């Protein structure tokens, strides 16, 4: 095989490939030998059909198959030997070919620009560590203690007030008649929360233990027996107990019940927990800084075909007038997104970064846990939409690349207060919201695509960046 490069125009190149007829013949003979072993023709023993007969019957099909194979192998080798990474599918133009002829063809290719990923090591970005003051962990511990109310029995003379727990049996009737599910035993209501039937618990104010009380309410729209919705029901209640909340003492015993060694250990665990709540959001802030710095890196040229594809994605849903009006803006956004994607891709390739199936499955399980009760529906959605899984893989790939860049780039560790962290995150969130609004307003997009830079060379995901408080649980786990 002989390859010559001609018509160099920036990233566009033509590669002229020549394969001599002797090589072509060897490929064809090999294929004929392969076919001979499997073909059965009347009048010939298996494996003994002459080549001339095979050629007469199957020559055109065999030549076509061999030509496809040679084109695939030689074009791939031509690009690899010349260190050309195509931006999109190369075009092949056959010049000469045929039985007992040399093969000549031209590969027209737009190559990806050369990228020096060493520049990424000079990127400067801020990393943040939140300094949590002891008053913050004390406040969180107090919140946990308040959420775990400890109710204690009181004597018969004490009446139920707001915040107390009333335990009672009941039997209800509508128009003097029983109905399905009209009885309850040891039902518990915390006065003031109005969690049973609207207006019910207020009628239990000032009741005492062993007292009999009648409560009248209107059955709500979500009542199981639909024919009774909107009707008055009389509940005859027997008060079994009135309990008052007893403040939980925050001490070593309280800490042990939450899985800590003692109160001092609990404070350390809570401090770490609060820090973790800010960590992911502040990491996103650092990643955004890196992406902004990547945008400053200059590339000599952007492949025109990639730019056209990206503009098509960005302009989805636009009419011709809006497209014309926003042409320059669309081009700039397309170039930015392609450039970021190309640089991240090149860094990922050179550092042998990939997303394993185990990582994909772990992320899918994480997504499923975020939608309790809808796991099956979400799984089916993923199965029916492989493109969504492709986007997910792209996002994980980008996250791994940014994590590796952070290890190689120049970080500036800043210790900040909780208030400073909140301010930083609010400013970043406001900035993203404005970008999101401007993007949708100018481009009139029907929907916002959440693709990563890797998947479609798009801009970073426009997610809301805030530090979220973890739900208070019974146990505080150690990490």
Keywords for this structure?
3 domains, Alpha-Beta Plaits, Trigger factor, domain 2, alpha+beta, 5-stranded antiparallel β-sheet, Chitinase A, domain 3, elongated, disordered C terminus, 4-stranded antiparallel β-sheet, 13 helices
Write the layout of secondary structure elements.
Elements: E1 2-9, E2 12-19, H1 21-36, H2 51-81, E3 91-96, E4 103-110, E5 124-131, H3 134-147, E6 150-153, E7 165-173, E8 183-190, E9 212-218, E10 232-246, H4 252-257, H5 263-294, H6 304-314, H7 320-325, H8 327-350, H9 357-369, H10 375-384, H11 386-408, E11 410-417, H12 418-443, H13 453-456
Parallel strand pairs: 5-11
Antiparallel strand pairs: 1-2, 2-4, 3-4, 6-10, 7-8, 7-10, 9-10
TL;DR of this structure?
By secondary structure, this protein is of the alpha+beta class. It has helices at residues 21-36, 51-81, 134-147, 252-257, 263-294, 304-314, 320-325, 327-350, 357-369, 375-384, 386-408, 418-443, 453-456, and strands spanning 2-9, 12-19, 91-96, 103-110, 124-131, 150-153, 165-173, 183-190, 212-218, 232-246, 410-417. The strands form 3 sheets. Strands 6, 7, 8, 9 and 10 form a 5-stranded antiparallel beta sheet that branches. A 4-stranded antiparallel beta sheet has the order 1-2-4-3.
Span between termini: 60 Å
How many strands in all?
11
Task: Return the domain count.
Answer: 3
Counted by DSSP, the helix tally is 13
CATH-defined fold name of the largest domain: Trigger factor, domain 2
Q: Name the CATH class of the largest domain.
A: Mainly Alpha
Q: Characterize the biggest β-sheet.
A: 5 strands, antiparallel
Shape: elongated
Poorly predicted sequence stretches spanning 5 or more consecutive residues:
441-451, 455-479
Q: Averaged pLDDT, please?
A: 85
Secondary-structure element order, N to C = EEHHEEEHEEEEEHHHHHHHHEHH
* Helix amount: 40-55%
Q: What's the CATH architecture of the largest domain?
A: Orthogonal Bundle
């Amino acid at each position: 095989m002989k390859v010559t490069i001609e018509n160099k125009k920036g990233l566009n190149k033509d590669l002229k490939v020549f394969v001599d007829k002797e090589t072509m013949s060897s490929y064809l003979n090999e294929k004929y030998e392969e076919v001979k072993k499997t073909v059965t023709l009347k009048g010939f023993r298996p494996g003994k059909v002459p080549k001339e007969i095979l050629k007469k019957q199957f020559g055109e099909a065999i030549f076509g198959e061999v030509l496809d194979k040679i084109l695939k192998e030689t074009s791939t080798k031509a690009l690899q030997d010349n260190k050309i990474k195509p931006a999109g599918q190369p075009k092949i133009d056959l010049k000469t070919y045929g039985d007992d002829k040399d093969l000549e063809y031209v590969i027209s290719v737009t190559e990806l620009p050369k990228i020096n990923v060493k520049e990424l090591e000079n990127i400067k970005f801020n990393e943040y560590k939140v300094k949590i003051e002891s008053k913050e962990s004390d406040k969180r511990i107090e919140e946990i203690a308040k959420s775990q109310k400890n109710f204690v029995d009181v004597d018969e003379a004490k009446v139920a007030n707001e915040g107390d727990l009333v335990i009672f049996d009941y039997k209800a009737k509508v128009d003097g008649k029983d109905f399905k599910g009209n009885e309850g035993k040891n039902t518990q209501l915390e006065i003031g929360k109005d969690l049973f039937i609207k207006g019910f618990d207020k009628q239990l104010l000032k009741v005492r233990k062993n007292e009999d009380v009648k409560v009248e309410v209107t059955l709500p729209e979500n009542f199981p027996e639909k024919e009774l919705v909107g009707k008055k029901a009389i509940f005859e209640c027997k008060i079994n107990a009135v309990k008052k909340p007893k403040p939980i003492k925050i001490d070593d015993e309280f800490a042990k019940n939450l899985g800590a060694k003692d109160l001092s250990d609990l404070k350390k665990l809570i401090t770490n927990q609060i820090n973790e709540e800010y960590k992911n959001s502040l990491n996103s802030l650092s990643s955004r800084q890196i992406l902004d710095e990547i945008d400053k890196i200059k590339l000599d040229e952007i492949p025109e075909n990639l730019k056209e594809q990206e503009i098509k994605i960005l302009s989805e849903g636009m009419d011709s007038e809006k497209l014309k009006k926003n042409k320059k803006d669309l081009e700039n956004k397309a170039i930015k997104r392609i450039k970021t994607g190309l640089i991240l891709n090149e860094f990922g390739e050179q550092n042998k970064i990939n997303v394993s199936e185990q990582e994909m499955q772990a992320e899918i399980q994480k997504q499923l846990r975020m939608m309790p009760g809808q796991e099956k529906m979400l799984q089916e959605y993923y199965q029916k939409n492989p493109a969504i899984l492709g986007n997910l893989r792209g996002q994980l790939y980008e996250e791994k690349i940014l994590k590796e860049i952070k290890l190689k780039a120049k970080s500036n560790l800043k210790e900040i207060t909780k208030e400073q962290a909140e301010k930083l995150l609010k400013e970043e969130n406001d900035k993203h919201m404005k970008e999101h609004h401007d993007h949708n307003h100018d481009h009139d997009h029907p929907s916002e695509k959440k693709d990563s830079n890797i998947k479609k060379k798009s801009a970073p995901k426009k997610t809301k960046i805030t530090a979220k408080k973890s739900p208070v649980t019974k146990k505080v786990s150690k990490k």
